[in-house]
Amino acid sequence: MWSKKAAAVAGGAIFLTLAGLIRLNYLFISAGMVMLTFVVLSSFLDVWMPNVKIRRETSSDNIFEDGDMNVRFIVKNKGLGIGFVEIYDQLPPQARITKGSNYTLLYMRPWQEVSFEYSLKLPLRGHYHLGPVKLRVKDAFDLFYNEKSEESLHSFSVFPQIEVLEEQIIKSRAPKLLSGAMPLNVIGAGTEFYSLREFVPGDSLRSVNWKALAKKGKMMVNETVREDVMDVILLVDAREVSAVGGGRDTPLEMSCRAAATYAKQLLDERNNVALMIYGDTVDRVDLDRGEHHLFKILTSLSSAKPQGNLKLEIVLKDTLPYIPSGSPIILFSSLDDDHTISEAFTNTISRGYTITTVSPSSLDFEERMKRIPAQPLLIARIERDNLISEIRSFGMQVGDWKSDEAVNTALQGG
Amino acid sequence: MEEIEVKKSRIPNLKEVFNYKDFFGDYPLIFLIKIISSVALVYVITEFYNYHNPMDSLITKKVNDFNDPDDLSFIPNSKIFILWGFIAGFVLYIFTLFKGKYKFLILFLTIILVGQYISDPALDWKIGDHVIPGKVGEEGAEKWTWKPIKILYDDKKGSEIRINEAYNKSMNLIFGSIPFLGGYGIWKRKGWAIAASVGLAIIIGFLYTPNSCLENYDSSYCGYETESEVKTWEEYLAGGVFIGMGLVIYIELAYAAIKYENYAEQFKPAGLDASLLTDAQKKGVSRTLMTLFVSYLVNLGVMLFITFIVAQGVININDYLSTTDGRIQDSIELNGPYGIVFTSLIFFMLLGFIRMFIGADYQTDEN
Fold this sequence. Notes:
Largest sheet of chain A: 6 strands, mixed
Radius of gyration of chain A: 33 Å
Radius of gyration of chain B: 31 Å
Largest interface: A-B, 61 and 65 residues
CATH topology of the largest domain in chain A: Rossmann fold
Strand content of chain B: 5-15%
CATH class of the largest domain in chain A: Alpha Beta
Order of helices and strands of chain B: HHHHHHEEHHHHHHHH
Shape of chain B: flat
Distance between the termini of chain A: 67 Å
Low-confidence stretches of chain A: 172-183
Distance between the termini of chain B: 70 Å
Helix content of chain A: 25-40%
Number of domains of chain A: 4
CATH superfamily of the largest domain in chain A: von Willebrand factor, type A domain
Largest sheet of chain B: 2 strands, antiparallel
Structural class of chain B: mainly alpha
Number of strands of chain B: 2
Strand content of chain A: 25-35%
Structural class of chain A: alpha/beta
Oligomer: heterodimer
């Protein structure tokens, strides 16, 4: 294939020759002829161009936000040709290269194998792919080239960033006794010793501590630590309004990071966790536990896109029948543009559920971008404070989460 | 403990004034390529003007037509304008390296200096005592006598000469625009400037008419005596081969400097400079650049040698056919420009025919 440069040089050479003929300028004719000869001879170089095969290897299939992915290319010349090879790996626009380059220019000798690598970072959760790889085999002078797009796609997900939480997030009022349950440090049916107390009618004789009876002369029974697991529902607001701000600083991005962090801790504590993301529809990941389930939740969070405008009342009315009675619900929402919030909370609490709210403040983003004048911003702040106070008045915990704060502090002071 | 206030120095840091890193670059090899391509540019242009005397150019005639008919001060000298044209392009590049207010300051100073240079003779006035006839004495006096007055002498003519000189120099820049654009393009890494310099060379060459100066002006002005000094067509052909080769070297090296610099750019962290690369990374890039450039130079050298042989071959074949007795010589006028073009077209047609068979279309294997 002719490059622009080849066309320009050949065009210039032909023009020189013709101009030489018109003006009877021998110098022009011979200079044009030399340039034309150079171009024509260069076209023969592709006879010896290398036959290249490429292979891409990556350090991991999925990464977390701001995590590094190393990409390695192995390029092999499978023939006797010699020449220049340009390789360009197409990246998602959000990707940032931290080391090396996704473009390289190589001079390939016969049967030579060369590798090059680069590292990239993706600051935003989502599903991405690397590739296709653009491959260009060309002569030394960039006059003629053969181009090919290798459909070598590598799909991967970028999961929301997970922070380590210092405290237990939530305690259920409806624990379930299951195998592999964890001690909750409250008295209850379990195997781990907690304290001694006096025997009361109804206590099982198997719980009597006979050594304590011999020592104190009265019937004493062992109390054990209660072991349980909970069914926790994570409810993420992915309505269109949750995209206020930009980049990582949007309520949805913050909600996803918080939901991922909470899910990780809850699953580490062997609880059952379900995820519901609402926007234009409700996407669910059903109750389950374990590492594999965390992967499902993270994948689902990576897919969350701001769209639709489903109100919380409708979402809860629709989903509550499927949520085990008394299970705690953690809502991640900026609480913007939803007049049904009070009613939704009232209905849910009256059915015996508890809702803990983690609310990233979208007003901080608006203030930073200076899109709203001071007066309306002040009014919006007052309205938000009123709504949070109202929810707190129901006895529910609400975390007013500022954008520059860690997930750890989201529920502090709530 | 008392806090010590660190006062910021009033002398600005060199980095804040001048982007010297752009000049030297991060890799000495690229700096070297720029120097070689600059030398190639100056060589090509010098050779070009050896065969295209600017005195015989239509541009010279037009400038003289525009000037006063008695004023033949416009004498374009390739020895001067090539060097100064290149220096002007290089200085323009250096000017672009200055930052913010310093760039403005230099522009301002340049305008002031040019203004001062032109107006200096006119402003350099002197006062002298003179006497003129006048009526001296009380009001209504009738008697005429010599009256002393002060006169301001200024040198307007001197300024006019300087204006004319500046005009002629700027007209010289038309011829010097080839090295000007080339020099700027090489150092500033502007492909369009390099292409424009080649384009201008073609246009200026097109406007060249042999001996047109002698037809219009004296030989003392033109700098050559008779038309016999005009080169023979064999000399032109040989010169053309060298100019063509020089053009190819200039274009190739200038674009190589841009290409390899862009390649090295890829390794810099986004939006930052190469100082953040580790020594090992820098050495790695340098090594790769060296490998690529050496391979490139070998390719260029071999290709230029073959091109030279083939081009000479075509000319010699044409010469042989046109001077050998026989039907070919009699049938068309081979011993002339049309003959050379005809011979070379046949040659390129043959090459194209061979290319059809041995130039297999390249296909990379799917994997």
